[in-house]
Structures are given as C-alpha cells and as structure tokens.
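Q: Structure for this?
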Amino acid sequence: MEADKIDSAIRFSLAMIRAGDPSGALAMIRGGATPNDPIARQMQYSKIGRAIGEALPELPALRVAFLASSTIDHLVDCLRFWLLLEGIRLEPYIAPFNTWRQEVTNPTSGLYACRPDIVWFFLTARDLHFETIPDANVVNSDGIVSSKVQEIVSFAGMVMSALSSYVVINNAEASSNRLFGNFEGTATWSFTTLLRRYNLQLAASLPSGATIFDLDYQASRFGLNRWEEPRLWYHSKHPFSLEAHGPVAFSGAKLLSAFRGQARKCVVLDLDNTLWGGVVGDDGVDGICIGTDSGSAGEAFADFQMYLKKLSRRGIALAVCSKNDPELAKEPFRKRHGMVLKLDDFAVFRANWENKADNLRSIAQEMNIGLNSLVFVDDNPAERALVRAEIPEIAVPEMPLDPAEYISTLAGGGWFETVSFSAEDRNRSRTYQENAARQAVLSQVTDLDAYLCDLSMHATWGAVDSGKLGRVTQLVNKTNQFHLTTTRYSEPEMSELMVAEDAWCGWFSLSDRFGDNGVIAVVVLRFLDGAALVDTWAMSCRVFSRGMEDFIFLKIWEVAKAHGCSGLVGIFRPTPKNGVVAALYDRLGGHPFCVSETEKRWQFDLADTPRLTHFIADNTK
Amino acid sequence: METTWKQNALNTIQDIFRAQFFEDSLIITEKTTPADIEEWDSLAHVNILATIENAFNVRFTADDMANIDSVAVLLSVLAERGVKQ
C-alpha cells in the first residue's frame, strides 16, 4: 500500500480510538498493515496496537514470558500488534536483560510470579558460545553440541515442571562471518556445522509441550546481509536489524495464535484463473491453461494445484466456490490432462451463479467449521473485496497477477501454523468430506417429499416368467435385510411356484431420473381358504425408504382381490439381519395376531383399501 | 544557504518526530533535547534515528547513535555526513 494510504489508515485509526471506537480502529489498520512495512511504520502500528488493546479488555489475553540476552522490547511491541490482528491481547513479561538463567533457577523470580501461558526462550546464536576446535574429532564435537542442547533442554524442563506453560525455544541463526569461509560447510567441527547440528539435535530433544521457533529460517528468508546489524548490537543490544522485527513479529504471532488453536482449517478456491488459466465456460475444457503442455503459466497453475494437494494431505481441507455451470466446472477434473487436483480432493464443491458470500457461509456450515477457519483464494479483486466486506472473519489474501507467485502468497500468509502433528490431523480432510456428505443427506431429509417427487420414479411389475426367473431367484436367496420371511428357493422351486394354481410370483423394477435400478423386489403369494398369504417379500436395500414398499403392497392387494380372496396375511420371521422390516406390516395397517418367538402374523381385510401414498408412477403396459 | 539547509532539515526532522510521537503540533528546534519530550526514551531514540537514516539517505555509526543526544548534535552529524538538501 502506498505511503499516503497507510498514513490515512493510521490517522483514521487514531481518530477512531479517540472517538471511542477501538474495534473500528482495528478494522481500519488491519486493512493497511503488512509485515514487511518499514520499522517506522511497525512502531506506529505498535502504538496503535497498545491503545486498541487497552480499549478492548474483553479480548482473550495471552500471557507470554520472554527470556532473552538481547534487547527485545521493540520486538515484543511489534508482536503485540500482530497478535492483536489475530484477536489476542498480549500480556508480556520481559525478564530483566540477560538474566534468563537466574530467572529460571530462582523459584521466586518474576517469571514464575507472572504465571505465563507461554514461556519463550528468545535465544540467538550469540548464546551458544561454541568453542570451535579445528580438526576436532567426532566425539569432541558431539560433546560440544550435546552439552549445549542438554543445558537448554534442562532449563526448559525446569520451567515446565514448575508451570503448566507451553515453551517456545528459538533455534540458532547462521552467521555471515565464516572463519573458514566456504570450508565451514564441509568441516564437521566448524562453527557453522556445529550450529546446524545443534539446531537438529535441539529439535529432536524437545520435551512434549515445547516447540522450536525457527530463527534460522527467519534470518535466511529475510537475508543475512540485511538481518545482521552489528552497530545495533553494540549500541543497544538488539539481536538483529530493526527492519527484521516486523516479519519476525508476524511469524511469532501466527505461532502463538496456533497455540490457541486459531490456525485456519480450510482453503476455499475459485476455479477460473485461480486453479487454471482461462475461463472454462468460454475456452472449453481443452482451451484452459493447465499443465506443462500449456507453457509456463500452465506449469505454474499445476504447481499451485500440487501445493494445494499437499496441504490437503497434511489435513487442511479444500473446497471450491466458483461462479460457473455446475457440470462444466467439474469437467476439467474429470477429463483434462495436466490437472493435479481431483474432484474427491474437495470436501465441498460449489459451482453456481449465486453470490460467493452466501456460498462461503453455507460451505462453512456444511463442513461444520467456523467462518474464521476459512481462507478464500480468488484471482478476481471484485470478489475478494466483496467477501472481505461481507464476511470479515474470512482471510482473503491479496493475490498477485502472476500465477507463478500464487504458492508463495498462500504459504506466506502463515494461516496454517501448527505446534504438533498426528494421524488425526492427516485424516482431517477425509473427516470434513464425510461430514459434508452427511450434512447434505440430512438437509435432504427435511424435505423428503419434495426429494422423492423430484426423483420422478416409475415402476414396472408383473408375474414372474422364464425371463425374470434368474433374477428373482437371486433376490430370494441373497437378500437378508428386507426379507420378511427369509425363504430360500432354488430355481426349480421358483419355477414350480411360477406356474402353480394356488400361488402367485411377482417381480418389481424401479427407475428414476438418475437411472434404472432393474428388478429390485420379488413377492410370492400363496392362496389358501379365501386368504392370500405373503409367503415371500424380498427387496433390494438399494431402494429402501423411497415408497416402493407402499407401491408393492398396493399391488399385492390388487392381485389378492383379483384372485377372489377376502383376507390377506402378512408374516414376519425375525433374524439377526432383518430388523429393518419388523414393524412394516404395522405401518401398512395390519392387525397383529398369532405371535410366537419365531413368527408374527398380521391380518388385513381386503375390503378396506389401505390409505397409503407414494410418488411412484406405474409404467406397466 | 546554510540557514535554508538547516531549516529544511529541521522541517523534515520535525515531521519525523511528529509521526513518532503522534503529535501533529509538536515543535522541534535546534535546542530540543530528550528532556523536552517525555516519550523520547532509548527505544524511541533508536527508532527516530532509523527513520532519519531513511529520510536523509545516511547511515549513522554505532558511535553516532550514542553521541546524538540532542537535535543540535543530530544536525551537526548530518552536516558532517555531507547531507545537503
């Protein structure tokens, strides 16, 4: 943002604080501040941050105790601001300069008195004091590293046994002053190599409840040349340049926010010009730009998709929110070579012409996560602005024009920090997908009638003939759940029943607008003394609860009446598997009689037509 | 010439101080010292010098940072570094 705009944002923010609107001030400055802004700005943000924090005492507080042998007051001020943008009020305790060992070993020190949530050992490479012994053998150099690691770990342990705080420990940043020059990278005993070994061993030796703050990475990313400021160290003992304070504070705030469980959980993605180049509605599936065959932009988009896929494998869910025709939007995932993501990488896939803010709200609801768990990625500045204005809880990164920079933009946002990782995290994406599917089914059930009507179901049925014999025999023998009497008949037996005078065998098939289910039910009636007994009624579980039960029963009624019967008898024989139909004849309006452990019977008077409704059309010619 | 340069430099320094302390009405002269401004502590000092470095495209040494304890000294160091606006 240009200097004038930031100036305005700061002035407006201050005015709002004076006018008694700290929340407005926070929103105003949030839109303007970025971590890489110069130190002069960072200090202005810090002042504003302090004022806003004091005016919003209801914000959740985080008490952090800082132990350091350098001047970190400026850094803590910056951290206070960036943590405020995470919705957390920092309550810092900074141990007196270079007293961190005493603070830890003295049970009456300020460190223990302040009862911090988090203790941060803000160490640097200057705390290591490694004595390099040129050409030292393995045992000696191991010893130098190990004894330092043990010392730090034991201090952390003292803190953790006295307090129930989390512990953050900095690892050590590299030095640009290499005594042996390039050779430092080869020698196993050089300062550079000992420092690298220390960093690895420290991470490996951490007690649970402690985490590393990767200061080495911070220095590397910022650039060692700019990071190191010897005159600042000599003058005021600052550990690194003031210009690095913003980026370090930003990263620190994201880490502390993750401790609070506030890291984000889901990336919602636009499609056109976000996951591929071009617009699928205009360019067609083959015209969009994706994959190495589509040039450098295509390769950039493919790499972005790969990055997203890796995010989902570590437990960050993916969703799509695109203004597109719903079927066309899915085509590239199904058909286009060069695509990396597949449809089942997404927990939710919304392609429609509704506004994106509404879609985002329903996506969050379907996945059962908060709006502040979402990161929304869209190449279109108008859509971004709309979502930011409508739903401020959603993180909306400013996307660059060049897809080559998409990964670094998303990765640099720091939205997915974590302090641990488990198998449960890895499976989280699948859990979101399953939740979304369940939610989708549930919301259909509340409008079941409309759903069933909408299916446009039609059925055909008839007496079993040789053409249907095989399939109905299979149904009789393989069905377990929807089988009221669990009769089993061989094909010859069925074929006898088919032609018997005192029996009727029927088949039923069901279609809907999605397709034809084929023959899904078989009924055998036996006629005896003016009554029809339902000897067999088996139905495929594929078509449960769609009204087919009612359709079939009404046809049984018709057949029994046509045969001249005056009564109908339903029979249920319980098994461990057919509990689903135990109450079917009750629901259909029968009168139970003759109950035993192995069988229950119901009586129907064929003069009383049952009052049943269903949405299935009879297509029999 | 000298006076014009000094006046220009003072204007820039005044702007920087005003932004640092969020005081639009702050007056900075050659005579101003930390005793005159309550919030001008060691942290503000480092910050002000960093901002002045950017504004005048100059770099202070570690000694400079310790020696500059008033606006008067600041102006003489800037002159020494060859800053002429």
